[in-house]
Amino acid sequence: MRVGVIGVGRLGICFALLLDRAGYPVMGSDIRSNYVAALNRREIRTTEPQVAERLTECGIRFTNDTSELVQDSDIIYVMVATPSRADGSYDITAVDRVVQDIKESQFDISGRILVIGCTTNPGDCQRIQDQLRARGVQVLYNPEFIAQGSILRDLQEADMVLIGGNDAEVIEQYQRLYHDIQTREPRVHSMSLTAAEIVKIGINCFLTTKIAYANMIGEILLRSGLDQDVDRALAAIGSDSRIGSKYMRYGFGYGGPCLPRDNRAFACYAERVGSPYPLGSITDAFNHQHTQYLIQQLLAHNTENRPFFMPSVTYKPNTDIMEESQQYQVTLGLLRSGATVYVAPSDLVPAWARDEILQHGGHIVALDQLHQQGITVYHVDL
Fold it and tell me: How far apart are CA 66 and CA 98, in angstroms?
């Protein structure tokens, strides 16, 4: 089976590389001409482990021509941007553009499998299937559950593979890819297109709720003067097998490109179908409140009025992603309160973020330099 990947960004390129290594003929496309040229030269800058090295060894051909990819692929995997709208739902204009290109193809596309890998609103994939049925194209929904900084590993060792679709034989045919790229027997969960879309955002809504819950318990313990018991209390809660220890710790709230957006999308869809329980909205509100609590807590605990030191301001260490980074917002909040804040230098932090830190009176200095200068800091390590 020939596989085409439309949108070879952070996730798409990793999926393409694994398929290539498994022996599939793979073509990748992207709308960014300079990026495609760099891919074909095997020269890209990325924070994802092993990606740059594997790119130099792969046989993938990259193009800006979506039509060429569609014509030369049996399976078309779509991983394009679906930004959030103001109401929390996803804007799938980029997906619809791909679908329109496929519909208008001047060659026979019957038998193709179109796999939507980016996050969509419940009902979107069924609408796309209805549009492409006359052309003989089967639509599947197959989102990934990965973390930035470990995408290749997460794809190979996924807890589960989620596939939505209307044809059991097509699902069976497609899931063979995972037998070839994963390091163990894939745990496949298949269901209807819309149910799979709900599961995708529902899982991340549960994770955001769990993170917020752990921080809420932590806040309550801290407000009760039980600072030394926070870690022990959360470890005890997480030891219950019904709850589990993953994400059960106190610290910064959730951020990044997936969890906050999926949480709001789940809340938006729940409201659309008339659910009276806005769990996603409540979790989102608490997460924002937690930012202010952390700022107040850090200021109150810094009784010696030492300068603060932030080891990282990206939403997750060793990434360059600033989307909804609570670490960054806490840094700015401390600066606005009049505190002195030193931030560790990092090539991963975008220039605009470094500039904003400096504009607010912050300093970008390595910790060892501060030690050499005899400066004692309050190390923010949550």
Answer: 8
């569609």: which residue's tokens?
A: 70
Tell me the three state secondary structure of residue 360: coil
Give every CB contact of residue 293 below 8 A, 6+ residues apart in sequence: 219
**What is the rounded CA–CA span in Å between residue 211 and residue 252?**
9
Mapped onto helix, strand or coil, the DSSP state of residue 284 is helix
pLDDT tier at 148, thresholds 50, 70, 90: confident
Structure tokens at 281: 């909205």
Q: Which amino acid is at 240?
A: D
User: Does domain 303-382 fall into CATH 3.40.1130?
Assistant: no
- Kindly state the average pLDDT of the residues 38-65: 94
- The candidate with the shortest Cα–Cα distance to 181, out of 144, 215, 214, is 144
Could you tell me the pTM of the whole model?
A: 0.92
**What would the pLDDT profile of 268-291 be if each residue is shown by its tens digit?**
999 999 987 778 888 999 999 999
State both tokens at 34: 């300079």
Domain assignments of the chain as residue spans, ordered by start: 3-191, 194-301, 303-382
Predicted pLDDT at 172: 94
* Residue 196 · residue 171 · CB < 8 Å: no
User: Which of 10-19, 106-115, 273-282, 307-316 is least confident?
Assistant: 273-282
Q: Which fold has domain 3-191?
A: Rossmann fold (3.40.50)
Q: Which helix (H) or strand (E) holds 77?
A: strand 75-78
Burial annotation 274-293 (CB, 10 A radius, 16+ → b, else e) = eeeeebbbebbebbeebbeb
pLDDT of residue 278: 79
